[in-house]
Amino acid sequence: MTVFAAAMDRIYANPSMAVAAVWISAATSAERPIRVIRRAPDRITEFGAGRFVSDTMMVDVRLSDLPDPRPGDLIVIGSDSFTIQGEPLRDRERLIWTLDLRPS
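^ Phage head-tail adaptor, sequence as received from the core. Prediction below:
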């Protein structure tokens, strides 16, 4: 295990940084408990001469928790459920998935 992987394990174990969630496969309905770090940055979209600001929901999840997320899978955080939209992206070290979510 690399030092970076060990640091990620500590960050995801910290309740101030990460929260418990459940991943549900759209294809098989399999469920798996995971830990995620939530982010909700604003996104600016340009349309003609206008610019629109919209809310987004993104989460980071370790590959060791979720090896193969797919668009359409569900992520349940507390009582809120979200659908993965778009292709999941991995970080440079191939340790973390970034998932773009939309409310379900």
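Residues 90 and 97 are 5 Å apart (CA to CA).
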